[in-house]
Amino acid sequence: MGRTVILLFIAASFVGCKDNGVPPVRNSSPQNSKATFALQTNIDLGVVVQGNSVELRKWIRNDTDSAIQIAEAKSSCECLSVQFSQKQIDAKGKVLVHLHYDGAKEPHFTGSLLIEVEIMDDQKKKIGQIDVPIEVVRAETIGEAHH
Protein backbone atom coordinates (compact mmCIF):
# COMPACT_ATOMS: atom_id res chain seq x y z
CA MET A 1 0.00 0.00 0.00
CA GLY A 2 2.89 2.38 0.78
CA ARG A 3 4.14 2.15 -2.79
CA THR A 4 0.68 2.86 -4.16
CA VAL A 5 0.39 6.03 -2.10
CA ILE A 6 3.86 7.19 -3.19
CA LEU A 7 3.10 6.50 -6.85
CA LEU A 8 -0.20 8.39 -6.63
CA PHE A 9 1.57 11.31 -4.95
CA ILE A 10 4.23 11.37 -7.66
CA ALA A 11 1.59 11.18 -10.42
CA ALA A 12 -0.39 14.03 -8.82
CA SER A 13 2.75 16.13 -8.75
CA PHE A 14 2.97 16.15 -12.53
CA VAL A 15 -0.69 16.32 -13.55
CA GLY A 16 -2.78 19.45 -13.86
CA CYS A 17 -0.71 22.19 -15.40
CA LYS A 18 -0.79 22.87 -19.09
CA ASP A 19 2.50 23.40 -20.87
CA ASN A 20 2.70 27.04 -21.97
CA GLY A 21 6.01 26.71 -23.74
CA VAL A 22 8.29 27.02 -20.72
CA PRO A 23 10.26 23.81 -20.31
CA PRO A 24 11.19 22.72 -16.80
CA VAL A 25 14.71 23.72 -15.88
CA ARG A 26 17.09 20.77 -16.02
CA ASN A 27 20.66 20.89 -14.87
CA SER A 28 23.00 19.10 -17.25
CA SER A 29 26.10 19.17 -15.03
CA PRO A 30 27.34 15.76 -13.86
CA GLN A 31 27.53 16.94 -10.23
CA ASN A 32 23.81 17.82 -10.36
CA SER A 33 24.49 21.16 -8.68
CA LYS A 34 22.14 24.08 -9.25
CA ALA A 35 23.24 27.12 -11.20
CA THR A 36 23.33 30.40 -9.30
CA PHE A 37 21.44 33.39 -10.62
CA ALA A 38 21.14 37.03 -9.56
CA LEU A 39 17.56 36.39 -8.39
CA GLN A 40 17.00 32.92 -7.02
CA THR A 41 14.61 31.83 -4.30
CA ASN A 42 11.86 29.48 -3.19
CA ILE A 43 8.46 30.95 -2.29
CA ASP A 44 6.05 28.41 -0.80
CA LEU A 45 2.39 29.27 -1.39
CA GLY A 46 1.29 26.67 1.15
CA VAL A 47 -2.03 24.81 1.01
CA VAL A 48 -4.95 26.06 -1.09
CA VAL A 49 -8.39 24.55 -1.63
CA GLN A 50 -9.02 23.21 -5.15
CA GLY A 51 -10.33 25.93 -7.48
CA ASN A 52 -9.45 28.76 -5.08
CA SER A 53 -6.82 31.46 -5.47
CA VAL A 54 -3.98 32.69 -3.28
CA GLU A 55 -1.73 35.76 -3.43
CA LEU A 56 1.58 36.43 -1.77
CA ARG A 57 4.08 39.29 -1.85
CA LYS A 58 7.68 38.71 -0.85
CA TRP A 59 10.99 40.56 -1.10
CA ILE A 60 13.76 38.91 -3.08
CA ARG A 61 17.33 40.15 -3.27
CA ASN A 62 19.81 40.68 -6.08
CA ASP A 63 22.86 39.08 -4.46
CA THR A 64 25.26 40.19 -7.18
CA ASP A 65 27.53 43.23 -7.39
CA SER A 66 25.77 44.42 -10.56
CA ALA A 67 22.42 46.04 -11.22
CA ILE A 68 20.02 43.90 -13.20
CA GLN A 69 17.07 44.63 -15.47
CA ILE A 70 14.06 42.29 -15.51
CA ALA A 71 12.40 42.07 -18.92
CA GLU A 72 10.17 39.03 -18.47
CA ALA A 73 9.05 36.35 -16.02
CA LYS A 74 7.85 33.05 -17.51
CA SER A 75 5.80 30.72 -15.33
CA SER A 76 5.77 26.98 -16.07
CA CYS A 77 2.02 27.02 -15.33
CA GLU A 78 -0.60 29.46 -16.64
CA CYS A 79 -2.21 29.25 -13.18
CA LEU A 80 0.54 31.46 -11.68
CA SER A 81 1.08 35.11 -12.56
CA VAL A 82 4.14 37.02 -11.40
CA GLN A 83 4.70 40.77 -11.17
CA PHE A 84 7.65 42.75 -9.85
CA SER A 85 7.41 46.12 -8.08
CA GLN A 86 10.16 47.42 -10.36
CA LYS A 87 12.17 46.21 -13.34
CA GLN A 88 15.56 47.64 -12.35
CA ILE A 89 17.21 46.16 -9.25
CA ASP A 90 20.40 47.68 -7.90
CA ALA A 91 23.41 45.60 -6.89
CA LYS A 92 22.60 44.01 -3.51
CA GLY A 93 19.15 45.60 -3.84
CA LYS A 94 15.76 44.00 -3.41
CA VAL A 95 12.49 43.84 -5.31
CA LEU A 96 8.97 42.99 -4.19
CA VAL A 97 7.51 40.08 -6.14
CA HIS A 98 3.75 39.55 -6.28
CA LEU A 99 2.61 35.97 -6.95
CA HIS A 100 -1.01 35.13 -7.77
CA TYR A 101 -2.11 31.49 -8.08
CA ASP A 102 -5.50 31.18 -9.82
CA GLY A 103 -7.00 27.76 -9.08
CA ALA A 104 -9.90 28.44 -11.46
CA LYS A 105 -7.46 27.91 -14.36
CA GLU A 106 -6.89 24.33 -13.17
CA PRO A 107 -10.23 23.60 -11.41
CA HIS A 108 -9.85 19.81 -11.32
CA PHE A 109 -6.24 19.63 -10.14
CA THR A 110 -5.30 18.38 -6.68
CA GLY A 111 -1.88 17.41 -5.41
CA SER A 112 1.58 18.86 -5.00
CA LEU A 113 2.82 21.24 -7.63
CA LEU A 114 6.20 22.88 -8.14
CA ILE A 115 5.86 25.85 -10.47
CA GLU A 116 9.08 27.27 -11.88
CA VAL A 117 9.34 30.94 -12.80
CA GLU A 118 12.21 31.90 -15.10
CA ILE A 119 13.31 35.53 -14.90
CA MET A 120 14.83 36.88 -18.11
CA ASP A 121 16.70 40.06 -19.02
CA ASP A 122 16.18 42.06 -22.23
CA GLN A 123 18.68 39.80 -24.04
CA LYS A 124 16.48 36.76 -23.19
CA LYS A 125 19.23 35.56 -20.84
CA LYS A 126 18.04 33.80 -17.70
CA ILE A 127 18.97 35.92 -14.67
CA GLY A 128 16.83 34.24 -12.05
CA GLN A 129 14.47 31.53 -10.96
CA ILE A 130 11.72 31.32 -8.38
CA ASP A 131 10.55 27.84 -7.35
CA VAL A 132 6.96 28.00 -6.14
CA PRO A 133 5.66 24.89 -4.37
CA ILE A 134 1.92 24.70 -3.65
CA GLU A 135 -0.34 21.98 -2.30
CA VAL A 136 -3.85 21.90 -3.78
CA VAL A 137 -6.41 19.94 -1.73
CA ARG A 138 -10.13 19.22 -1.84
CA ALA A 139 -12.29 21.22 0.58
CA GLU A 140 -13.16 17.97 2.42
CA THR A 141 -9.46 17.50 3.24
CA ILE A 142 -9.37 20.81 5.11
CA GLY A 143 -12.51 19.84 7.02
CA GLU A 144 -10.93 16.50 8.05
CA ALA A 145 -7.93 18.33 9.50
CA HIS A 146 -10.16 20.03 12.08
CA HIS A 147 -11.50 16.75 13.53
Description:
By secondary structure, the protein is mainly beta. It is built from 2 helices and 10 strands. The strands form 3 sheets. Strands 1, 2, 5, 9 and 10 form a 5-stranded mixed sheet that branches. A 3-stranded antiparallel sheet has the order 3-8-6, with no helix packed on it. A two-stranded antiparallel sheet has the order 4-7. A hairpin with a 5-residue loop joins strand 9 and strand 10 (126-137). The longest helix is centred in the first third of the chain and has 13 residues, at 2-14.
Secondary structure: elements and pairs:
Elements: H1 2-14, E1 39-42, E2 46-49, E3 53-61, E4 68-69, E5 72-75, E6 80-84, E7 88-89, E8 94-102, E9 111-120, E10 126-137, H2 139-145
Parallel strand pairs: 1-10, 2-10
Antiparallel strand pairs: 3-8, 4-7, 5-9, 6-8, 9-10
Write a concise keyword list for the protein shown above.
147 residues; mainly beta; 5-stranded mixed sheet; 2 helices; 14% helix; disordered N terminus
Please summarize what this structure is.
Helix content is 14%, strand content 41%.
Give a quick account of the main beta sheet: strands, pairing sense, barrel closure.
5 strands, mixed
Number of strands: 10
H and E string: HEEEEEEEEEEH
Helix/strand-derived category reads mainly beta
Overall 3D shape: elongated
Q: What is the subunit arrangement here? A: single chain
- Helical stretch tally: 2
Q: Mean of the pLDDT scores?
A: 80
Helix coverage percent of residues? 10-25%
Cα gyration radius (Å): 17 Å
For the terminal residues, how far apart are their CA atoms? 24 Å
What low-confidence regions span 5 or more consecutive residues with pLDDT below 50?
1-16, 19-33
